[in-house]
Amino acid sequence: MSANLWSSIPAEWQVGLTSCRSEIEAIDQKLVQCEKSGVLVVPPRDQIFASLAISPSEVSAVVLGQDPYPTLGHATGLAFSVPNGTSPLPGSLRNIFKEVVSDCGVDSAADCTLNSWTKQGVLLLNTSLTTEEGIRAGHLAWPWQPIVLSLLLHVVSVNPNVVALLWGNAAKDYSRLFNSACVVESAHPSPLSASRGFLGSKPFTRTNDILAANGRSTIIW
Fold this sequence. Notes:
Radius of gyration: 17 Å
Shape: globular
Number of helices: 8
Number of strands: 6
CATH topology: Uracil-DNA Glycosylase, subunit E
Structural class: alpha/beta
Strand content: 5-15%
Order of helices and strands: HHHEEHHEEHEHEH
Largest sheet: 4 strands, parallel
Distance between the termini: 39 Å
Oligomer: single chain
Number of domains: 1
CATH superfamily: Uracil-DNA glycosylase-like domain
Helix content: 25-40%
């Protein structure tokens, strides 16, 4: 079972995670323990690394959140994304779409899966890739930090001017990895904090300005 989680990681991302094999195996063992004890982990095992479906060379922007939605059926492995048909939308995603309208002057072109963003090179990553059903930030003690750190370092090595949208304090801890001119920071879009610095922060046009200045395609948000 310990190889299963590793084998779900695309080969072009495995290159950047070789130093984290022991942490990935430790998480795999924790997942097995949860499965045996009936503890429900979200997202499902086969979606934990869903954000890595795009190759490192395709990543032009990273949206970094905190941890998956704890509500059963919401977490997809893509930060802030939920499956089509989810109603009501989580508060964080509602605020993200609200800010797109305020910032860009039009409704978001994305649906709630945010797949159109990933197809344009947006890596939707959390600082912790799992949690337990009903428990926010339930796996912060799991060894996700070195794994996420290695993923981000791999992205930066491929694209030194990747834009980092860092939403919330957990995400801001990774700002040192990026070119400071390419960092767009704000509060988390959660209803608990969105009014304290996310709403009105204009992250989407700021990101496109940086991309354009570096000769990269802008994103249709």
